[in-house]
Amino acid sequence: MVKTPSEPAQIGMQIPEFRLPDYTGTVHDSRTLTGDHGTLIAVICTHCPYVKHIAHQLGEMAAELAATGISTVGINPNDPAANPDDGPDGMARAAEEYNFTFPYLVDATGDVARAFGAVCTPDLYLFTSSGELFYRGQFDDSRPGHARPASGASLRSAVADLLNNQPPPAVQKPSLGCSIKWPEQAAGQ
């Protein structure tokens, strides 16, 4: 695992359009996945210890967000050849274990994650109801192996600002996680 911070994003950028299958093969379109009050895109995978550290809380938060009109979408760009747990079967097990009630999509080429500018898992993007990037940053200050449990405090604060019509947070700490294991077919492009 290579510990990698996310890169700054252009606040206000439009959510990239995409069509991806979930781990069952059902295809989802970005235009139908947006929430009435916003959309959280979580670039995640199943084997990363940083994702595992927040996964239960991410599942819980996604349910809370759904009640406020913010949808959640998980996108997995990792090559299952690099780690079989990142394939559809592993994604199905993770979705069940962590109560991911949101679409958990397979980005087999990595093109969608690249369109977002993702570099690590987890990499989190909160968009407004009109599809403008509001927040790109960490879930919270906790990390695997430290005593502090995951709370989602950083993301929760950004969500509160979004729902209360406040400007995007002035300070957006980058996510920190495992570097994306890009599919070989896309890595040479």
Characterization of the model:
The chain is of the alpha+beta class. The protein has a single domain, classed as 3-Layer(aba) Sandwich (Glutaredoxin). The chain has helices at 30-33, 49-68, 88-97, 111-116, 153-163, 184-187; strands spanning 3-5, 19-21, 27-29, 38-43, 70-76, 104-106, 120-121, 123-127, 133-137, 176-179. A five-stranded mixed β-sheet has the order 6-5-4-8-9. A three-stranded antiparallel β-sheet has the order 1-10-7, covered by helices on one side. Strands 2-3 form a two-stranded antiparallel ribbon. It starts with a strand and ends with a helix. Mean pLDDT is 92; it is low at 185-189.
Distance between the terminal alpha carbons, to the nearest Å?
22 Å
* SSE order, one letter for each helix or strand: EEEHEHEHEHEEEHEH
* Shape annotation: globular
How are the strands ordered across the major sheet? 6-5-4-8-9
Q: What does the radius of gyration come to? A: 15 Å
Helix proportion range: 25-40%
The total domain count is 1
